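Sequence and structure are kept together here, with a separate record for every protein. A complete record is shown below as an example:
=====
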Amino acid sequence: MILNYALTFVERVNDNVGDATMALRRALTKSILLMGLGWLIFAGFITGLITGIVAIIFTEILVYLERYSFFYLGIPYPGETRIDISVLNKVAEGIEPYRIIVLYSLATLLNGLLVYLLAPEAQGHGTDAAVKAIHHKWGHTEPKIPPVKLASSAIYVGLGGSAGSEGPLVQSGSGIGALIGSLLGADRYLRRILAIAGIGGAIGAAFRAPLGGSIFAIEVLYRRDYESEAFVPSLVAAITGYTVYSVYTGFKPLFSLGGVHVKALDVAIAALVGVLIVPVAYLYVKTFHYVHRVMSKLFPNLFVRILVGGLTAGIVAMIIVYAEPISVLALFGRGYEMVNVMVSVKLGIAVLLVSIIGKILTSSLGVASGNSGGVFAPMIVIGALTGVLTGTIFADYLHVPVSSPAFYAVIGMSAMIAAAAKVPLTAIVMTSDMVGGNWMIPASGIASVVAYILSGMELTIYKSQLLNRYRSFVKPW
């Protein structure tokens, strides 16, 4: 009985603390809306402007290294070539898998030296570090981290490391937002909001997703909640970052898939895609965290861990590419080229399946060991591969008249993002931004919600994500 009374008392104290925290947040939010919304919009605009410029510089370096890497491999650079069956034949005939190890060795060595010597905090994927800083340090990021993160990631991903470009941009964008808040004399709470807005600016530019970037910024912090008071500055930053980036590169979606005729049957099958994505998301997330735990235990020295993880990822990529040469488009670098290939050229089930497994292994071995890069882009590629694999099975083996591969690629992306990153609204909106159309929203919404619910609240690639805003206890650094 005494124990029951004690437990009841603790629960009431927790509820009161939570209520008091939310009351304080509401009071602060009201004060911002009445007195400082214009100031926040201005600060969000400056944040988006700078993050957009940073995204341009980072992407230019990354693309330059990618172009060199594909040339060294002996295959056409997909970013400058229209993909068709003849190009794929050139890839299959011209690829020299052993050269993957050469590039991975160079990428891992340079990345490891930069991170180990200049900023060990820049290791791994940057989004989780940004989320952690927002929850525990009011968004504060050491000034040396963003430039080291950007440089090391550009080298690792540009030279073939299986990872994304969003991680370094998110971490640097969050740091830029917090820095702008400090320069403008903002208090800790407003500085934290601008750090969140910096995430929106980075994603808006990196994925050409102005609305999706703003939603990602307020949703990625929690598995079942939103930082709603940061939405307006995040939206301004995301739109500004997207505009600055697109003025330089052109106003076009990340994936040019065109319009797709969606049938009623496709919308129904989307729910099944959401179900099938869950075990793939589970495999990706669990593999990533398992590699991180094992490598940290076996190799306490960061530099050694980065080298071992990167080289192991390179060996895995080489073996898989030797068996299925076309998989190099998925395993090498960001892997976006494979998405464009899948929607224009019919690929066999073996290539799709091997690419899924290979992308999970190479991304986990490389980034979880400390190599600098993002985990969101691999998530997109894995989801697209799984979606197209599902559609191919329905069409070729079950003889069901389904829609084009582009439809299933987008549905797979949405479901994977919702399950592995716990951002279902982002999954629906961002994929619409990335493909430049809203033709997939109904089916994408169904697949994302199903995957989000079935995957459970504990499964997430971002370990610093909290359940809801009651759990966020930011402290002064």
About this structure: The chain has 18 helices and no strands. Residues 355 and 369 are 21 Å apart (CA to CA).
